[in-house]
Design the sequence.
């Protein structure tokens, strides 16, 4: 087995992500390029052509991730919120990318000068306040419709990213996207990050890993695989409310974590089809007579 594939299969995040990519043709065979955006990606092309006006500040690896998740929204009315406006150039990029005339765009930033972009981009609404202020974020939620996409590109500190997700995730529609970028700050002390979280405040990456655990909360007692009540309480009490029942997937990319929101059962339906099966027994000794019996059953049923 190739070393990379072995690593993916052994990773707590890698295997679910691999299954997601293989099972969804929208994502399959569209590799994310790290050194630049892909040719034909309209966001990458916009970025390359943008020579004047408000600055766009992005890592090259982001553009293909954006397009992978956002392209299905391009020609429908979309409610888009960018948390962290800064110099405003990305607002113009999003207005160009999402082409439906009834799309609505919202920005959130702590810098009061960012209000200027309401004048520069007609129809854009800017809210001024801190992402770490729960009261402020709840006010933003009360004054805006539910979002198809929320992109967190704000201050990148641990408290900002975690509070932002906790307060805004439920403001995303079913089928929508919540995306957090610049998550490398989880490893940078200046932003509250740390590699060893045992001695530090939780980072966004460690928080997101626990949310992956929460996606599997319904399986903690599945078919007798019981966990302690303490473990169940720890998972159930962590993260946005109803996360388990309202998250389709969590995907980790280079400096980006993507949450796809949508209703799902806490335990999926387990179905069996067909009329031939081999009983599971990992330690059974080989028996030629049993093999012959299975051969006759299997080949006898072949269409």
Sequence:
């Amino acid at each position: 087995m190739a070393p990379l594939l072995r690593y993916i299969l052994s990773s707590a995040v890698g295997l679910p992500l691999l299954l997601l990519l293989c099972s969804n043709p929208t994502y399959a065979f569209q590799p994310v390029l790290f050194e630049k955006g892909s040719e034909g990606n309209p966001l990458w092309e916009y970025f390359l052509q943008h020579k004047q006006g408000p600055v766009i500040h992005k890592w090259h690896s982001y553009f293909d991730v954006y397009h992978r998740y956002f392209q299905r929204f391009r020609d429908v009315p979309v409610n888009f919120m960018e948390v962290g406006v800064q110099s405003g150039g990305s607002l113009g990029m999003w207005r160009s990318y999402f082409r439906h005339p009834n799309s609505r765009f919202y920005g959130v930033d702590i810098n009061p000068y960012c209000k200027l972009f309401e004048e520069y981009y007609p129809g854009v609404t800017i809210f001024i306040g801190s992402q770490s202020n729960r009261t402020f974020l709840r006010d933003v939620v009360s004054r805006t419709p539910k979002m198809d996409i929320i992109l967190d590109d704000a201050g990148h500190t641990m408290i900002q990213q975690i509070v932002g997700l906790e307060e805004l995730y439920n403001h995303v529609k079913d089928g929508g996207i919540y995306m957090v970028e610049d998550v490398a700050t989880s490893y940078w002390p200046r932003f509250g990050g740390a590699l060893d979280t045992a001695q530090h405040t939780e980072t966004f990456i460690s928080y997101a890993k626990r949310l992956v655990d929460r996606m599997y909360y319904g399986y903690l007692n599945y078919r007798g695989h019981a966990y302690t009540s303490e473990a169940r309480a720890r998972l159930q009490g962590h993260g946005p409310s109803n996360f388990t029942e309202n998250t389709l997937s969590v995907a980790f990319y280079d400096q980006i974590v993507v949450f796809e929101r949508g209703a799902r059962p806490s335990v999926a339906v387990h179905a069996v089809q067909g009329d031939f099966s081999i009983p599971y027994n990992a330690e059974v000794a080989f028996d030629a007579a049993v093999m012959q019996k299975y051969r006759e059953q299997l080949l006898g049923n072949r269409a």
User: Anything to note?
Assistant: Residues 1-29 have pLDDT under 50 and may be disordered. The chain is about 35% helix and 15% strand. The chain has one domain: 12-300. Residues 12-300 form a domain with the Rossmann fold fold (CATH 3.40.50.150).
